[in-house]
Design brief:
The chain has helices at 4-17, 78-98, and strands spanning 25-28, 41-49, 53-56, 59-74, 108-111, 115-119, 127-140. By secondary structure, it is of the alpha+beta class. It has one domain (4-140): Phage minor tail protein U (Alpha-Beta Plaits), CATH 3.30.70. A hairpin with a 7-residue loop joins strand 6 and strand 7.
Length: 145
């Protein structure tokens, strides 16, 4: 039996996987990547949930789980880096806006504004990244399920 939390995170990951191509890779809980594919990569981190809101009759736990996305691109040209990163962020937004309930598994899915970072690499092109928190609100009748 798969927990509701795992169902929700897996559904989000599967939606993001639709962005994967030969030059864009999507991973879940990947350790620090050694290389960044040509047009970028997205790493979904399972994140953490807050304390649930509890309804007593019937007993329902309402979670707002924060899933983290690391979106990375690497290119020697800063304009190209910014453009590639922006394209990935717009694509992620489109996936979320198209299906805010993850086919009924969640009550609501919403991305927060990204935090940007440039990481110069000695002897290689700079990596530009964005960290995006995605709030997934879902219900369950058991906090371990």
């Amino acid at each position: 039996m798969i927990s509701k939390r795992e169902q929700v995170i897996s559904a989000l990951f599967n939606k993001l996987k639709t962005l994967e191509t030969a030059s864009v890779k999507i991973y879940r809980n990947l350790d620090k990547p050694q290389t960044v594919p040509t047009e970028g990569m997205i790493v979904l981190r399972d994140g953490a949930g807050d304390e649930p809101e509890v309804l007593l009759s019937p007993l329902i736990y309402i979670y707002e789980h924060l899933v983290g996305l690391e979106v990375l691109v690497q290119n020697a040209d800063s304009t190209t880096r910014s453009s590639l990163l922006d394209n990935l962020l717009v694509s992620i937004g489109s996936i979320i806006n198209t299906n805010r309930t993850l086919d009924g598994l969640a009550e609501w899915v919403e991305a927060k504004a990204p935090d940007f970072n440039d990481d110069p690499i000695e002897g290689a092109a700079t990596i530009r990244s964005a960290t995006v928190q995605i709030m997934v609100r879902f219900f369950t009748t058991d906090p371990l399920n």
